[in-house]
Write a structure and sequence with these properties.
This protein is of the alpha+beta class and 167 residues long. It is built from 3 helices and 5 strands. The protein has 2 domains: 2-91, no CATH class; 100-166, OB fold (Dihydrolipoamide Acetyltransferase, E2P). It has a 5-stranded mixed β-barrel with strand order 1-2-3-5-4. Strand 4 and strand 5 form a beta hairpin. The radius of gyration is 29 Å and the shape is rod-shaped.
């Protein structure tokens, strides 16, 4: 039995190193499997092996009791890893990237006045920062510098805006 536990412990440690080196790729492969997460499985395997080795060496428990205790430890560890680390980290993924379509309905401020049937620049607060974008009046109207505007639509890299105060 000690061979089984040592094998699981060593395999778990080696797989943990592989996950450290290739975790992004393996995480992408396993992303479709919501229940089975490689990190949780590796933790379970490692804890199973480590608990088995420790219980065999340092207790007087029978082999069956050691096996059951190791399995229970592995299951609890895998669940704790999933619910306390893997799942919260998956839900906490953030990106600073956005689509220009995400600016629809946002309020901004004209940085460079927008001439009638021409283009200017609008600053829109988005997420934790600001984004400046080329803008035009929706109906070809002129909008002065400093005016508050509402982004109505975004197409072909240009924000089409109207005066926010007109709403």
């Amino acid at each position: 039995m000690i061979t089984l536990y040592m094998g699981c412990l060593i395999a778990g440690v080696l797989l943990a190193v592989v996950m450290l080196l290739f975790g992004d790729w393996l995480g992408g492969v396993a992303h479709s499997l919501h229940v089975i997460q490689p990190t949780s499985l590796i933790v379970g395997l490692t804890v199973f092996g480590g608990a088995g080795v420790m219980l065999l060496r340092y207790t007087e428990l029978a082999d069956g009791a050691v096996c059951i205790a190791s399995i229970i430890s592995a299951i609890f560890s895998a669940f704790f890893m999933y619910f306390l680390y893997v799942r919260p980290m998956r839900n906490a993924e953030n990106s600073t990237g956005f689509s220009i379509q995400d600016l629809n309905g946002r309020v901004g401020e004209v940085l460079t006045s927008i001439p009638a049937h021409g283009y200017g620049e609008v600053l829109v607060r988005f997420g934790a920062g600001n984004v400046a974008h080329t803008a035009a009046g929706l109906n070809g109207e002129a909008i002065g510098e400093g005016a508050r505007v509402l982004v109505i639509e975004a197409r072909e890299g240009t924000l089409y805006v109207i005066h926010y105060d007109d709403i």
